[in-house]
Every structure is written in structure tokens, then in C-alpha cells.
Amino acid sequence: MRKLATVCLAAAILVGASACRSHAVESFNGWWRLDESASTGVPPMMKGHDTVVHLTQSGNRFTIEFLFDGQSLNTSDFILDGQMHAGQLGATQEARWIDEPLEIEINIHRPAGGPMPGGNEHLIWQLEKGGQAIRRTSTHPDAKTPPQVYVYRRIAAPPAGRGA
């Protein structure tokens, strides 16, 4: 009887540990490399280059650092509260969870005549089950362009020359 209780306790601990590990992996936090072959709408200037994003999400904050061939190009910060906030280069943005912790929606509103083309961009960042891939879908409701879908794969470490 004691042996059966010990086996049941060990099984319960293993199941609990496995659930904790699986939940920890299902997170946007980490380094992600663009998978060009699984993506659509990748601009010619990005093709053949190492495109990586470093994502951090904590509470209602979501940060995206873009790296191109190992060089940090831009960092964007979002507050996941569904409210309008100031963005970069005169833009405004709103962001929210659609399905926490797996899906984030971001709307960016860029003014006409600014440094970036004016208009609206709708983004969905979706973490696939298992936490090893992200699908980022970008649409421009004002334009008649097809969606741009980038697939990113989790990488274990930052690109060479970058700290964690």
C-alpha cells in the first residue's frame, strides 16, 4: 500500500512539473527567427537576411525588438489594455489580449505626411500551441494589399554578439 501511495505521489509530481514546463514554454518571451519559407509577403530587402525578434511580455506590457543581420533596428513598446497610446513617429496605437497568453492584437494608426506611410495597420501576434512558433499577420484595412504573414521559430539563444 505504501509503495502504491509513493508511485501515485511521484506521478502527481511529474504531471504537475510537466504542466508548469508546458505553460512556461507557451510564452512570447524569447528570441524568434523569421522562417522565410513558411512566411508570405516578405519584402525583397529582407529576403536572405537574418531577421530576428526579441519579444518580452510582462503583465500588460509587450515589447518587440527587431534585429536585422544581428543589428538592433527598432524597439516597439505596447500596453495591452485596449486603450489608445502614443506610438513611434507620430503614430497612435492600441493593443490588447485576444486570447491570453496566446494571441495579441495591435492596431497602429499612422498620420498622413509623416515619416512612415499614413494609414492603419492591424497586427495579430499568435503563439502556436507548444510555444515553438509565432504567426504574425499584418493587414492594412485602408489599402487593397494581401495580408503579410510572418512565421517566426523560437531559437535557444540570441544572435551572435547579442546579450540575453
The ordered string of helix (H) and strand (E) elements is HEEEEEEEEEE
Any idea how many domains? Answer: 1
Uncertain segments are 4-24
Contiguous helical run count: 1
Shape: globular
Named at the architecture level, the CATH assignment is: Beta Barrel
Rg, Å, rounded? 19 Å
CATH superfamily: Calycin beta-barrel core domain
Secondary structure: number of strands? 10
CATH fold topology? Lipocalin
What is the spatial order of strands in the main beta sheet?
Answer: 4-3-2-1-10-9-8-7-6-5
> What percent of the residues sit in helical stretches (DSSP H or I)?
10-25%
CATH class: Mainly Beta
How much is the average pLDDT? 86
In angstroms, what separates the terminal alpha carbons?
49 Å
Structural class: mainly beta
Biggest β-sheet: count, sense, barrel? Answer: 10 strands, antiparallel
The proportion of residues in beta strands is: 35-45%
Structural description of this entry:
The protein has one domain: Lipocalin (Beta Barrel). Helix content is 15%, strand content 44%. It has one helix and ten strands. It has one helix at 2-25, and strands spanning 30-34, 51-58, 61-68, 71-79, 85-86, 92-99, 103-110, 119-127, 133-139, 148-155. Strands 4-3-2-1-10-9-8-7-6-5 form a ten-stranded antiparallel β-sheet, with no helix packed on it. A hairpin with an 8-residue loop joins strand 7 (103-110) and strand 8 (119-127). The longest helix has 24 residues, at 2-25.
